[in-house]
Amino acid sequence: MTPQPLTSPDPQAGAAVKAADRAHVFHSWSAQGLIDPLAVAGAEGAYFWDYDGNRYLDFTSGLVYTNIGYQHPKVVAAIQEQAGKLATFAPAFAVESRSEAARLIAERTPGDLDKIFFTNGGAEAIENAVRMARLHTGRPKVLSAYRSYHGGTATAINVTGDPRRWANDNGTAGVVHFWAPFLYRSPFYSETEEQECARALTHLEDTIAFEGPQTIAAIVLETIPGTAGIMTPPPGYLAGVREICDRYGIVFVLDEVMSGFGRTGKWFAAEHFDVTPDLMTFAKGVNSGYVPLGGVAISAEIAATFDKRPYPGGLTYSGHPLACAAAVATIQVMEEEKVVENAAHLGETVLGPGLRELAERHPSVGEVRGTGVFWALDLVRDRETREPLVPYNASGEAAAPMAAFAAACKKNGLWPFVNMNRTHAVPACNVTEAEAKEGLAVLDAALSVADEYVA
């Protein structure tokens, strides 16, 4: 298919944007001289387009955060209205949009997670959740999984388990990593989900025993790991972690920065497992990323720790009125337009079946995993051995097969989410059936390119 622009092409304007970017913008996670950022002219709904007239279906949702798509008119209008009323105000005051955002979030969080500490994003949410846990327990250590991503700030990057941690790991952050369950690439030689669950919990208990339970403040887990591969935990695992935390007085932190606010077909992924953590972090989908916002939802017990004792943490823009107004409008839109229900429906009837059908036709697909609008294709060279299509943390020529796959997607109007040997299907939660099927058709063609690298 040929991507169609929504506006008249203007290559000269695009060249100017690109030139200014290359001259002055320092990009994250990149070797600055090796990147070639696309100059984006605009976006609407599930699509964005460049200055040359190429239009792309965004199967990344930005960085998995535009849960209601780009430029939703009701959220844009709410930001504009708030800017006219009260564009900003310090966090120590009670402000209508901040209070209302906190109320709406607390109504949807599980259990007694009814106090909301606002941050500017997910990494700061993890920073503060870990600080709260350490202060609440008086213990120094934090346990987290190897296959995880929790943010790029000092504590959050140490809590992270993927290779982005390596260059930033100072070895003194008090973080210990362990293996979470992942049957397809099991570190426990499991053959069933039941075995994987039981062995992963045993491994976690062993880690706690050897680290010293009395030294551990928190266990931090993504409810369903996102960037690391969308590995839905087996039944019973999160409940098992909850029980272990209760037994040893460890704070259980669930990271819902990526999986929250409709992404999995529930308001929060924890609802799939009937588990309530002590602290829950959020960001991204809370307002579809229209204005930076994140936060920590806090249990009554941990909140009570700071009733008479000041909490030693804060941010100049905590609960920024514009960001909170966007959150209020986003949550209202998700209710009115049944966005969470749409995500669940698409996962069950379009994305899940469609991706599994692709796996049947393409030998490069080793496994399909996911729920709602939160899916991953694990691409392999050999289905029998499960050898990844590219090596772990590959770059340059070693990553060429995934680069060729991504290029094939873009050529046909789909912007893919690619990480290591995986591609994730993570469109907006309000994407239509027709748009989801359009994306599947482009993936089908691009996987034929990946198939060329199969042994």
What tags apply to this protein structure?
alpha/beta; seven-stranded mixed β-sheet; 16 strands; globular
Walk me through this protein's architecture.
- The chain is of the alpha/beta class and 455 residues long.
- The protein is built from 13 helices and 16 strands.
- It has helices at residues 11-24, 61-64, 73-85, 96-108, 122-137, 154-159, 193-211, 237-248, 300-305, 321-336, 339-361, 400-411, 433-451; strands spanning 40-44, 47-50, 55-58, 115-119, 141-145, 175-178, 216-222, 251-255, 279-282, 294-298, 365-371, 374-382, 387-388, 414-415, 417-419, 422-425.
- The strands form 3 sheets. Strands 4-10-9-8-7-5-6 form a 7-stranded mixed β-sheet, with helices on both faces. Strands 11, 12, 13, 15 and 16 form a 5-stranded antiparallel β-sheet that branches.
- Helix 4 (96-108) packs across helix 10 (321-336), helix 7 runs parallel beside helix 8 (237-248) and helix 11 runs parallel beside helix 13 (433-451).
- It is globular, with a radius of gyration of 22 Å.
- The mean pLDDT is 96.
Helix content: 25-40%
- Cα end-to-end separation: 29 Å
Within the largest sheet, what's the order of strands? 4-10-9-8-7-5-6
Rg on CA atoms, Å: 22 Å
Strand count: 16
What profile does the largest beta sheet have?
Answer: 7 strands, mixed
Molecular shape = globular
Structural class per helix/strand content?
alpha/beta
Order of helices and strands: HEEEHHHEHEHEHEHEEEHHHEEEHEEEH
Q: How large is the count of helical segments?
A: 13
Q: Determine the strand fraction and express it as a percent band.
A: 15-25%
Given as residue ranges, the uncertain stretches (5+ residues, pLDDT < 50) are none
Mean pLDDT: 96
